[in-house]
Amino acid sequence: MHKHHSALGLATALRPVQPVTLIRPHAARRAARFFVEKFPGRSLYAVKANPSPDLLEVLGDSGVTHYDVASIAEVKLVAETLPEATLCFMHPVKAEEAIAEAYHGYGVRTFSLDTEDELEKIVRATATDGVAASDLNLLVRIRVSSDHSKLSLASKFGAEPDEMRALLMATRQAADALGICFHVGSQAMTPRAYAEAMERVRAAIVAAAVTVDIVDVGGGFPSTYPGMEPPPLELYFETIHRSFEDLPISYSAELWCEPGRALCAEYASLLVRVEKRRGDTLYINDGAYGALFDAAHVGWRFPVKLLREPESETKDMAFSFYGPTCDDLDHMAGPFHLPADVAAGDYIEIGMLGAYGCAMRTQFNGFGADLKVVAEDEPMASLYLGEAEERAVPSNVVTL
Ligand SMILES: *Cc1c(COP(=O)(O)O)cnc(C)c1O
Asked: Which of 87-96, 112-121, 151-160 has the lowest mean pLDDT?
């Protein structure tokens, strides 16, 4: 196990040739404790945001007991890494074989759906010797607006409000516990997104006149990036709590959420080397096919820092990046603000890549080494600083 006090220390002492993922278990622990202690209900970690076993262990240790999985491979991964965890299969379109294996092989009891076809699949796949399962938690996903979010999830999934009545009534017949879930889109920049979605949930419950046992407000909780500083998460939690209390549901109904990004964005950053400079373009050793998919394809701006000792004294200027593959698409427009004298051989830390960053890495063109080192310094930005923090090092990180 290699530990380094800081990103700068690692860059100057080791001068790594390959990009290095810096992981910060203390930051993930802090985020998890925040949700466990402050969200007024249960927090399921959305595994797709970052499925690293080292992160799953930190979240499990920090009190996250439930995991939102989207594929049978994620079911297996979490079951192996955290045998005590409760798995919830929250992808509304699943292979029937995956449902059956999850239910019969891994004890999964919670599934989401957004059509009667999917309901029938779940009922068939979970029956035993022709007898329907009586222990299912079924959550009907309602389509809500993504207007307040940076990445839309509004068009692919979710039953239309006018389809909800029939679907809720049919699902009620098959479910032990009936729920409604939604996703406001990723990086929701205002708590209003949840208040508006909860109004749709209310209308659906009233129209169907069914007993609802679970309301799941999904993911979308923001992290902080350049130009995207959200209001405090406490305001989101208060808004959600108030909306939940106003719903026509029983006192024993449960409130759930499914944070992905907010739990892991601060967990990892990336240390890259500048291989060449051409004007205001830097050719770096990681890119669109590595951890920088969102920087290339949706223009996401991540914070950057030049790691040099002594520090550069030149003023910042705007740069764009090219990644290491031979492909023009391997381009990150930024702008990324760095000292004007950045040169080949310099190291740059790219922050907030714990969510949808390291998880997206490919081996395209022979690049994609995934070295991990634990860093004990603070992430480049944090929503949670000031919370009590403990430091723990996971057991399964590759030594540099
Ligand atoms: C992606 C996803 C999440 C996590 O979303 P974030 O925006 O990362 O919080 C939660 N639930 C479902 C069903 C998802 O598809």
From this structure: 151-160
Per residue in 231-282, pLDDT (tens digit) is 999 999 999 999 999 999 988 999 999 999 999 999 999 999 999 999 999 9
Instruction: Give the position, in ligand 1's atom list, of the atom nearest the Cα of 188.
Output: 7
Task: Examine the pLDDT at 394 and tell me if it is beyond 50.
Answer: no
Cα of 220 from ligand 1 centre, angstroms: 6
Answer with the residue of higher pLDDT: 388 or 134. Answer: 134
Residues 104 and 135 in one domain: yes
- 85/132 same-domain check: yes
User: What number of helices (H) and strands (E) belong to the chain?
Assistant: 12, 19
Q: Which atom of ligand 1 is nearest to the CA of 186?
A: 7
Q: Read off the pTM.
A: 0.94
Indicate whether 369 pLDDT > 70: yes
Looking at 214, 244, 264, the residue that finishes a domain is 264
Domain assignment of residue 74, given as a range: 26-264
The CA-atom distances, in angstroms, between 140 and each of 197, 199, 318, 346 are 14, 15, 46, 51
Question: Among the three residues 264, 288, 310, which one is the final residue of a domain in this structure?
Answer: 264
- Expressed in angstroms and rounded, the spacing between residue 46 Cα and the centre of ligand 1 is 6
Cα 219 to averaged position of ligand 1 atoms, centre (Å):
4
Q: Within this chain, do residues 305 and 236 fall inside the same structural domain, yes or no?
A: no
8-45 b/e (C-beta count within 10 Å ≥ 16 → b): bebbeeeebeebbbbbbbbbbbbbbbbbeeebebbbbb
Total domains present in the chain: 2
Question: Quick check: is 392 in a domain?
Answer: no
**369 and 271 part of one domain:** yes
Q: How far is the CA of 186 from the centre of ligand 1 (A)?
A: 7
Mean pLDDT of 24-28: 97
Q: Please check the confidence at residue 182 and state whether its pLDDT lies above 90.
A: yes
Residues 18 and 155 in one domain: no
Residue 147 has pLDDT above 70, yes or no: yes
Joined together, the tokens standing for residue 164 give 């909800």
How crowded is residue 117: how many other Cβ atoms within 10 Å of its Cβ?
A: 10
